[in-house]
Design a protein that fits this description.
The longest helix has 18 residues, at 60-77. It contains eight helices and 16 strands. The strands form four sheets. It has an eight-stranded mixed β-sheet with strand order 4-1-5-6-7-8-11-12. The chain has a four-stranded parallel β-sheet with strand order 13-14-15-16, sandwiched between helices. The protein has a two-stranded antiparallel sheet with strand order 2-3. It is an alpha/beta fold and 324 residues long. The chain has helices at 60-77, 91-101, 124-135, 219-224, 244-254, 281-287, 297-310, 314-322, and strands at residues 3-8, 15-17, 24-26, 44-49, 81-85, 108-111, 145-149, 152-155, 160-161, 170-171, 179-181, 186-188, 207-211, 231-236, 260-264, 290-291.
Length: 324
């Protein structure tokens, strides 16, 4: 059997619902600890609790600790696969950060749950079992960090949370899952074409994420310039357009050598420099705005945090966001 490491970080998968109030919150003891013996038939399991945090409490600091822990454990203890349990609210960001930064080539799977451990129809243990199966699969090698919930296997790059409460919340818009998990085994029907990783050792930059809206002006852009700002990601309208006054705000940031990354607030499609009117994509591209090749806002922010640890050169940053 494969030697698999399970790292618990918290989230709904490790919480309980209060029978009186209905409040879901962390318990003194992670209920997943008692389930590990039942997984011994699947793999040679080793589990540890790195954090016990709701996922809105997870920051890039915890993501970096998690990355360092995984790499150290693989090198020193020769694990052949890793499963991470995580809250679902920021799961996709942690998964994508790990995908960008982990250098080791063993299957790494991130999973969670939409229902706490003592609710009727709790999905946590089932998702954990599915994830161990995927982490133990030979075919999972070379596909980057994977996200497994609800019988589906998604890439960290494309998956996103699409529903506040449905157990089928994790979807990969435009692309779909790359595989499925069944009672009989793990089956992949697609494979990512490439993966680029960055060997960073720290996260020291401050990157802000803004969402465009009708009538957006330059006020917020001038306000954030008073912050210690290293970069900005904007979820733009449509194919990559902004209201005219907002475009002027972007220009003021670029003049101060603050990189600006553009994604779309649409969950399908990519941004392109198509429109030539004031605030349109062509004008933004000519200003020096960097167009991302299909990432959503929260993942583009994670990538810019990582990229800025490597370089602040405009041309190199542009290459990094095109090469996705």
């Amino acid at each position: 059997m494969k030697k698999i490491l399970i790292i618990h970080t918290g989230g709904t998968i490790s919480m309980k619902e209060d029978e009186k109030t209905g409040a879901v919150k962390p318990d003194e003891k992670n209920p997943l600890h008692d389930t590990i013996p039942s997984l011994k038939t699947l793999a040679d399991m080793h589990a540890e609790e790195l954090f016990h945090l709701p996922s809105p409490h997870i920051t890039p600091k915890e993501m970096l600790i998690l990355r360092n822990t995984i790499e150290e454990k693989i090198k020193k203890e020769h694990f052949q696969g890793v499963v991470i349990t995580h809250g679902t609210d920021t799961l996709e960001e942690t998964a994508y950060f790990l995908d960008l930064t982990i250098q080791e080539d063993v299957p790494i799977v991130v999973t969670g749950a939409m229902r706490s451990s003592n609710e009727i129809g709790a999905d946590g243990l089932y998702n954990l079992i599915s994830s161990v199966k995927v982490a133990s699969s030979d075919e999972a090698h070379g596909k980057g960090v994977l996200v497994v919930l609800n019988d589906e296997i998604h890439t960290a790059k494309n998956v996103t949370k699409t529903h506040t409460s449905n157990i089928a919340t994790f979807q990969s818009p435009q692309y779909g899952p790359i595989g499925i998990v069944t009672k009989r085994g793990v089956f992949f029907h697609h494979s990512p074409t490439k993966r680029v990783t960055y060997p960073i050792r720290q996260l020291s930059k401050n990157v802000v994420l803004l969402k465009a809206y009708a009538g957006m002006d330059d006020m917020i852009f001038h306000a954030i310039q008073t912050l210690p700002l290293d970069g900005l990601v904007i979820e733009a309208l449509g194919q990559g357009n902004l209201p005219p006054k907002a475009a002027k705000g972007v220009k003021s940031l670029l003049e101060k050598k603050i990189p600006v990354i553009l994604v779309s607030r649409c969950f399908n499609g990519i941004v392109q420099d198509i429109y030539g009117y004031e605030g349109g994509g062509k004008q933004l591209k000519e200003m020096g705005v960097i167009f991302s090749n299909g990432l959503n806002g929260q993942k583009a922010r994670i990538k810019l945090l990582v990229a800025l640890e490597m370089t602040n050169d405009y041309e190199k940053l542009q290459e990094m966001f095109i090469d996705e």
